[in-house]
Design brief:
16 helices; eight-stranded mixed beta sheet; single chain; binds adenosine-5'-triphosphate; binds magnesium ion; five-stranded parallel beta sheet; alpha/beta
Length: 393
Amino acid sequence: MSAPIKALIALDDGLDRDSIQRFLPPNAEIEFVATVEGLEESWTTLQETAPDLVLVGCSGYSDRALFFIDGAVKQRSDRPVVVLCEGSPNGFVRRVFEVGADDIVTLPETPEHISFTLQKALARKQGAAFATGVALAPMICILGPKGGTGKTLTSCNLGVALAQKGHRVAIVDLDLQFGDVGLSLGLTPERTLYDLAKSGGSLDADKVDGYLTGHSSGVRVLLAPTRPDQATTITVEFLRDVYTALRSTHDYLIVDTAPGFTPEVIASVDSSSDICVVGMLDSLSLKNTKLGLETLELMGYSKDRIRLLLNRADSRVGIASDEVAAILGRNPDITVPSDRDIPRSVNEGTPIVVAADRSEAAKAFRSLAELYVNVSKDGAKKNGRVGLLRRRG
Ligand SMILES: Nc1ncnc2c1ncn2[C@@H]1O[C@H](COP(=O)(O)OP(=O)(O)OP(=O)(O)O)[C@@H](O)[C@H]1O
Ligand SMILES: [Mg+2]
């Protein structure tokens, strides 16, 4: 077994050792080297103990805590800082990320969840991809700040392209009110996320498996609720458990999202190992894409885990590719042309990588899949996880 993570707990005024104790995970993977009351005292202990991770506890909005986090991050940017805060005071979450913290947990929260958050923060900093002691498959979150940019198209075609390469792929349709992954893949919803959430009891991989709908390509989908009112049943905590279960039994998990940064989308971004931002080639969409990229940066998401896909990239809208790069601050990794076969393939429930596998659009989605295969191989080599990347057959 690897050495435990050494964590220092720094408590702001208003929190003491006893009040924080019940939230702390008792597992052997995290060793709390010191719990210090008062942030000034904590600063001294921080220099003396050299922990792997700093946990900052505060009871509400605290400039002292922000100052402390800022100092800790500047001192060692490779050491994760996670904040535990009672409630979620206005504006504090944003400030916490701005000063460089890796994550924030609002209390009360279970020790298991806090343990998961700490391990994830450390894993992210180390570029590792483990979260609960076992290696977890890559989780790719498909994002687009605006509706209709091609997120669902990308989720389905990326999923099928990865499955065609022999990987075990799960897709979660997180467009909880108007999810249409099922329609795009021609699937009939018999069991959905809603049914799983309503089933009660603990979630394990076997149970989640029973709620997946299979596609002929091998992709397995956890479909969105069939009615918009069912969306409220899906909590952020439930989603985290679902993701962990699916990542332990598949090679890739793809999450198709609704437009914007809803709480579920933020939680999914937070759990994910990779992001694919889907933008379109018009000035409004580019502006929103830029805002989306900036938001991810504020959340502390590493730039090299974000891929940018520009959809309908051949549209004659008078924006040249160097202008795109100037607006977005980066070049797209993949461009997908407009293709009249795409709406038809969506209507027929057959993804374009199957319906017209020689089309430029299909090639673009296969290239996107290739990018993730390569990233995953690199990550696996780095972490000695090659044996855990399962292949079908
Ligand atoms: N490259 C393209 N060429 C032609 N049609 C496209 C292309 N990309 C997307 N479309 C069409 O645009 C529509 C919207 O695409 P899609 O559903 O994937 O977007 P979305 O981002 O998931 O939307 P929402 O935010 O509503 O979930 C679809 O009906 C699809 O057929
Ligand atoms: Mg969609």
